[in-house]
Amino acid sequence: MTAPLLSITGVESYYGSIAALKGVDVHVNNGEIVALIGANGAGKSTLMMTIFGEPRARRGRIVFNGRDITNLPSHEIARLGVAQSPEGRRIFARMSVWENLQMGASLGDPANFRADLDRIFAIFPRLKERMHQRGGTLSGGEQQMLAIARALMTRPRLLLLDEPSLGLAPIVVKLIFDVIRDLNREQGLTVFLVEQNAYHALELAHRAYVMVNGLVTLEGAGRELLARPEVRAAYLEGGH
User: What is the DSSP secondary-structure string of the chain?
Assistant: First the structure.
């Protein structure tokens, strides 16, 4: 059996003396979309940040493409082919769309910049229209497109997406999720997705995990979890 592209084993993370992750086991196979769902404060975003070393895992191992990255600096993890579109987007508000994309491309080969830019503009035509506009003046949906596009400029093997639908109109959410699905199907991009919108996440994902209070409590195929009564009650029918 082929080893997972990303393997997280027994990971514990803390904020000061408070345990945010309490022994998390997750794996993401090459070519998969894997979702992590859970309520606010469950530890989902902390897991995403821990993969990138902020905060650093105190216990456990994180292995990417056969290499232990648990204690690597964040920029080295990025160079290995992991890219992140973080919660809250965190684009460079004073920079133009073009400049934000240049920042994303800074880890790659400059010779690929033009081809990568054309690829991004084919995926997100709106960004081409806004190319010289400051990031901070874009709509929320356009900023989310830019955050994902900036991550894609690194040519990642693994894309970490943290709450891509947060605060967006339903029509924009559909567009974003359609793009994720297309990138996975057409380019084989592996995606690890943290998402509060459990319905969209489980519809999209090949496999998914449910996190409660820093622990993974359920895992299975996305549509299988979507059909489970306890998941529907907690995350799809107005539960917590």
Answer: -PPPSEEEEEEEEEETTEEEEEEEEEEE-TT-EEEEE--TTSSHHHHHHHHTTSSPPSEEEEEETTEE-TTS-HHHHHHTTEEEE-TT----TTSBHHHHHHHHHTTS-GGGHHHHHHHHHHH-HHHHHTTTSBGGGS-HHHHHHHHHHHHHTT--SEEEEE-TTTT--HHHHHHHHHHHHHHHHHH--EEEEE-S-HHHHHHH-SEEEEEETTEEEEEEEHHHHHH-HHHIIIIISS--
Are residues 148 and 164 located together in one domain of the fold? no
pLDDT digits (tens, 9 = 90+) for 185-230: 999 999 999 988 888 899 999 999 999 999 999 999 988 998 888 8
pLDDT digits (tens, 9 = 90+) for 8-31: 999 999 998 999 999 999 999 999
User: Do 239 and 163 belong to one domain?
Assistant: yes
- For the domain that residue 221 is a member of, what is the CATH number? 3.40.50.300
Do 100 and 167 reside in the same domain of the chain? Answer: no
Q: Are residues 73 and 95 located together in one domain of the fold?
A: no
The total of structural domains in the chain comes to 2
How does residue 1 score in pLDDT terms, banded at 50, 70 and 90?
A: low
Q: Which of 47, 17, 31, 5 is nearest to 209 (CA)?
A: 47
129 within 8 A of 79, measured Cβ to Cβ: no
**Average pLDDT of 136-150?**
89
pLDDT of 239 > 80? The answer is no
